[in-house]
Amino acid sequence: MLVNGLVADGITDVLPPAKTDPYQNRKSVEFGFRTRRFQDVQRLIERVLAEKGQAEILDLGGTEKYWLIGEDFIRANRHRLRFTIVNNERQPVEQPDLFEFRFASATDPRLFAGRQFDLVHSNSVVEHVGVWRDMEMFAANVRRLAPRYYVQTPNYWFAYEPHFRCPGFQYLPESIRVAMLMRFSLGFFPRIEDRGEAEQVVHHHRLLSTRQMRTLFPDASVRHEKVLGLNKSIIATRDR
């Protein structure tokens, strides 16, 4: 389930290689959005540190590289932080004193049974995990595994589709989206020659609305990340 660097639940062997790496260019638009977004995550972590002196953070569907967006804060507090990353795409851990990797699905209801973390974090993952039932299982894990959580996802009603970088792509009939992926290089994806692969990519990019996010996370505070006054993404947080 590497995401934005990128593979999500159920599509590990389907997606073609990512075209661009948003973490390579710290002046990129993507890196800028993630950096600003991290301020909210940092505030949640700081509250845990103030209460307990240390924090265990569970990142569902993320990568160690993602946390470069908060490297100054993490470096200053690394002796008090511990990150566990769950992903169904294997990845190496470069800082084992700080990060632990678990090969698993974030939708598995048995995930970390009987264990609690201080904060669950998920950035642009829930839209990749599958059909609505998969999203419900993902959300149940988020809510079960920590008293605090932070979940971000692109907004279905923001016309610019961020994965394919194509205005209105998510509103097109599925058959047209598949045909476009087979004909053009779009966003993170080179042109896909195999129809089955193109269909799988479309199936595993299901943007959510604000109403759907509120349904999945009824105990959360739900707000929007805005661009030019428009709701670009949806953020659900629970702070106890």
Describe the structure.
The protein has 240 residues and is an alpha/beta fold. Helices cover 30% and strands 21% of the residues. The protein contains 6 helices and 9 strands, in the order H-E-H-E-E-E-H-E-E-E-H-H-H-E-E. Strands 3-2-1-4-5-9-8 form a 7-stranded mixed β-sheet, with helices on both faces. Strand 1, helix 2 (71-77) and strand 2 form a beta-alpha-beta unit. Helix 4 crosses helix 5. The longest helix is centred in the first third of the chain and has 24 residues, at 29-52. The radius of gyration is 17 Å and the shape is globular. The two termini are 27 Å apart. The model is unreliable at 1-20 (pLDDT under 50).
In short:
By secondary structure, the protein is α/β, with parallel strands linked by helices.
> In terms of structural class, how would the helical and strand content be classed?
alpha/beta
Coarse shape? globular
- The percentage helix is 25-40%
What is the typical, i.e. mean, pLDDT? 89
How is the main sheet built?
Answer: 7 strands, mixed
* Count of distinct strands: 9
Give a topology summary:
Layout: H1 29-52, E1 55-60, H2 71-77, E2 81-87, E3 99-103, E4 119-123, H3 132-145, E5 148-154, E6 160-161, E7 166-167, H4 174-183, H5 195-203, H6 210-216, E8 221-227, E9 230-239
Parallel strand pairs: 1-2, 1-4, 2-3, 4-5
Antiparallel strand pairs: 5-9, 6-7, 8-9
